[in-house]
Amino acid sequence: MSGATELDPFRHDDQLSYDVFAQGMKAVRAVPRVMGGLPVRTVIAGGHSRSAVHLGVYVNAVHPHAPVADGVMPIIAGRQVRSDLDIPVLKVLSETDYVATYDEWTQITARQPDTDRFRTWWMSGTTHVDHHMALARAATQIRDLPDRPLEGTDCDPPGLSRVPSQHVVSAAMAAMVRWVTGGKPPTHSPLPEFTATTPPALVRDEHENARGGIRLATFAVPVATDRGTTSCDNYLVGTHVPFDDATLRKLYPTHEDYVGAVTAGLFRNVRDGFLLHEDATDLATQARASIAGRALVTGPLVANVADFRRALSIPILRDHTQIYHFRGGDRLLGLLDQAVTEAAEGYTTSRRAAFDRALGLVRRYRELVAAMPGHDRADPAIADLLVRFAGTLIEELTTERDRQ
Fold first, then answer.
1. How far apart, in whole angstroms, are the C-alpha atoms of residue 199 and residue 384?
2. pLDDT tens digits, residue range 33-74?
């Protein structure tokens, strides 16, 4: 039509999308080959970010007329849902989503009280787009669009929270299955602490981290400021600023102080239902490998800040490696954990030998990753990327060693 404005279907309700979504769920339930022959007992409608916003329309307007799903999970965003639904709804929100004031993203005015059919989990310290998501997105792009350049996040102060919201989402999924199949509702989330001002603001501690809400141990025992807000144009990435070495030494005089506090926090997270035991085990391993409390200098190659396309470091390569869940990947992660400690020792003591040990560990990592495609353990494009990242770190570690 002449003069008409073309609507973006991703920003406006595409009516066909709801029927496509419903037909997909019906196929999962009724056509065995869709799930490779696995029996399907429960179908939960899920949506993340923009999809969570559309999922609100689906559950409010479509589900009552043609029910298909057994439950609904809007993740990182969403709308208010009607109070007369006959299926359970569990909404999981990042801090960005409950402090944002942008159109449908805001959850301040959309807040609803918990009921026997509705729950909201509020994840403090997390961002709508976080470090894990940025790495996972890059991994998928490398697999599906290998010729497309990877985009970076260039914010000051840097963004992409390191608080692992994916683990809370995993616990929420497990809780949702129990709710649908056994009738046991998920635990109530602690509420974020807001001021009485208009508009309300989050109450923050001495590190500028939010009080209240679900506080994973890696946030409650902090090594950085992780906020859902940012001064960056891309408001979805939040803020992540690691503490300086003096602050870390004050907070954690010994490594045992740090590990003990994280371990106790992980126990509480599991007990409260916001973390699965398997994920708590991984986080405990990371805490033991951390240099927090070791009185070491956090040089640039051992810092976990910004994103890997802007400031590659050994911990960021570790995080990227962990994304792929390689068979036998614990060995790769262990090599990089040791390399972090050795490089930090090099920064602290100015000893070339420590950097040499770090170099040997990263070189061994590179050799193992380079061999993985030949054993059908990694896609060649992904292995090539990690090998190139390792090569960059080897060059930079060599430069650091030669400065000593």
1. 49
2. 999 999 999 999 999 988 998 899 999 999 999 899 999 999
Model pLDDT, residue 173: 97
> pLDDT tens for residues 143-187?
788 788 777 777 888 999 999 999 999 999 999 999 999 999 999
- Distance between CA atoms of residues 305 and 162, nearest Å: 9
CA 91, 93, 98, 102 torsion-angle sign: negative
List helix spans (H) across 62-158: 95-99, 131-144
Answer whether 365's CB lies under 8 Å from 394's CB: no
Is the torsion defined by CA of 248, 250, 255, 260 positive or negative?
negative
Alpha helices in 277-379 (DSSP H): 277-289, 314-323, 329-349, 352-371
Could you report the per-residue pLDDT of 259-296, keeping only the tens digit for each? 999 999 999 999 999 999 999 999 999 999 999 999 99
Q: What pLDDT was estimated at residue 222?
A: 98
What number of other Cβ atoms are within 10 A of residue 352's Cβ? 15
pLDDT of residue 200: 79
Beta bridge partners of 370: none
Cα–Cα dist 169/50, whole Å:
17
The domain ranges of the chain are 111-295
The alpha carbon dihedral of 163, 323, 96, 108 has a sign of negative
Give the span between the Cα atoms of 172 and 167, in whole angstroms.
9
What is the rounded distance in angstroms from the CA atom of residue 47 to the CA atom of residue 226?
24
Cis amide leading into 157 (omega within 30) = yes
Number of C-beta neighbours around residue 99 at 10 A: 23
Q: What is the mean pLDDT of residues 23-36?
A: 93
CB-based burial label for 195 (10 Å; 0-12, 13-18, 19+)? exposed
Count of beta carbons in the 10 Å neighbourhood of residue 25: 16
User: pLDDT, tens digit, for every residue of 200-218?
Assistant: 789 999 999 999 999 999 9
Q: Is the pLDDT confidence value at 1 over 50? A: no
Angle at 153 between CA 251 and CA 372, to 5 degrees: 85
Task: Report the phi/psi class of residue 134: left, alpha or beta, with left for phi > 0 and alpha for psi in -120 to 50.
Answer: alpha
Q: Give the integer Cα–Cα distance in Å for 389 and 301.
A: 12
Cα distances (angstroms) measured from residue 332 to each of 116, 119, 139, 319, 325: 45, 39, 17, 11, 11
